[in-house]
Amino acid sequence: MMTGNVGHxxxxxxxxxxxxxxxxYVAFVITSLVFLTxxxxxxxxxxxxxxxxxxxxxxxxxxxxxxVVYGLTWLFSHQSSxxxxxxxxxVLFWGGLRGAIGVALALSLPYQLNNRSLxxxxxxxxxxxxxxxxxxxxxxxxxxxxLINGDDEGEQNESREFAQQSASAEHEVxxxxx
Length: 178
Hints:
The chain has helices at about 1-10, 15-40, 45-50, 50-80, 85-95, 100-105, 115-145, 155-175. With about 180 residues, it is mostly helical. It folds into two domains: about 1-40; about 45-165, no CATH class. Helix 4 packs antiparallel against helix 5 (about 85-95).
């Protein structure tokens, strides 16, 4: 925790970039392995047979997410001087993607557990819904709520920031060699 909160201030720009890139890559590999495991473990006929429990799990997940997001942001807005705009609340609700952790937990259920395959099917169904539907419609929602425009401004800003950090790191390296 100390390194994460304080250590990055003492690091050079080059080290920060390398660490960020490394951990981003590790997260990508782990997430890829989890979803590869889903592909190996998923049983489509079992999912089709459990469509009703999957639907119930999905509704319960969305309802609980709505209660938490809208309820807590309303409470926060009324307890502080800061107001969270409704459009941000919609994004928080719709962006609540569930994935790798839920799947890892479902896959780790003991084989002796009653209804293990049902719980796994429900988890896989919710994850598939959130990744395929919620994940692919997020950009549309952000545009519809006028939070981004069509020219991918956020990606351009991120690219500029990375280029600036790279230039700063290169400058530090050059100075250290002199």
